[in-house]
Amino acid sequence: MPNKFTRIIITLNKYPFIIKEKKRGEGDRERGSIVKLKHSVYRDIHNSGGYRAMKIKFFAVGGTIDKVYFDRKSTYQVGEPRLDEILTQANVNLEYEYESIIQKDSLDLTDEDRELIFDRINRDRHHHIVMTHGTDTMIQTARKLQTIQDKVIVLTGAMQPAKFKSSDAEFNIGCAVAAVQSLSPGVYIVMNGRIFNPNKVRKNLELDWFEDA
Fold first, then answer.
1. Nearest CA to 178 among 42, 53, 37?
2. CB-neighbour burial class of residue 111 (10 A; exposed 0-12, middle 13-18, buried 19+)
3. In 45-108, where do the E strands start and end?
4. What was the pLDDT predicted at 166?
5. Residues near 199 by Cβ (< 8 Å), separated by ≥ 6?
6. What confidence tens digit (pLDDT) does each residue in 164-186 have?
7. Which of 89, 104, 121, 159 gives the lowest tally of CB atoms within 10 Å of its CB?
8. What Cα–Cα distance (Å) separates residue 166 from each residue in 27, 39, 79, 139, 162?
9. Alpha helices per DSSP H over 129-185
10. Which residues pair with 191 in a beta bridge?
């Protein structure tokens, strides 16, 4: 007997997920649930359509992205985090929180600062985390965080302050937001349109970008 239903199936974190079921002669109706819940990520189908995205926690630790003054002599002040402003202007349709841990240039971060960053992220209840960080020592901090379990942690930043029209800040944050919703638990660096393993990346000072090491 012919199947009366047409199913549309996607895969999330390797598990099949029915997102829409349509009976012949009737309108669409959405239903379903992930077959397994992986690392406390909950996605539910609602009749209003789509799945409910996870909540993202943003942490800011300073760096060029938050600089409010910058010149060729590298004179600057690290200002208030610009994350909320960027996300608001982008009209993002997701639930998030943000928190500032430190307001420093990454070259000024100490081992004690990285311990503080580690502890704050490790204790945080959220499983999907994006951190804005200075690019000079981003790799060092990412490696420090690699022992944290059951979280997707994405570090990103900018080569130019977010207040500059030519800044790469908005692009990098957008890439990080997409990446943190798609990746398996672990620590990643997202820069220049790419996702990097912290153990296999370097910052190319001449070309001003991140690349495979």
1. 53
2. exposed
3. 56-62, 67-69, 77-78, 96-104
4. 60
5. 143
6. 566 788 889 999 999 999 999 99
7. 89
8. 47, 38, 18, 24, 8
9. 138-144, 169-180
10. 194
Contact predicate 64/135, CB 8 Å = yes
- Report the first-to-last Cα separation within the chain, whole angstroms: 57
> For residue 130, what are the CA distances in angstroms to 117, 145, 151?
13, 12, 11
Instruction: Determine how β-strand 77-78 pairs with β-strand 67-69.
Output: antiparallel
Q: Which one, of 50, 76, 48, 56, lies nearest residue 64 by Cα?
A: 76
| Torsion 181-184-185-190 (CA) sign | negative
- DSSP percent split of the chain into helix, strand, coil, nearest 5: 25, 35, 45
Confidence bin at 17 (pLDDT 50/70/90): very low
Spatial neighbors of 96 by CB under 8 A, at least 6 apart, are: 55, 56, 57, 58, 87
Query: Residue 10: how many CA atoms within 13 Å on its side-chain side?
Result: 12
How high does pLDDT run on average in the chain?
A: 75
What is the amino acid identity at position 173? I
Residues near 31 by beta carbon (within 8 Å), at least 6 away in sequence: 18, 21, 45
* Segment (H or E) for 87: helix 83-89
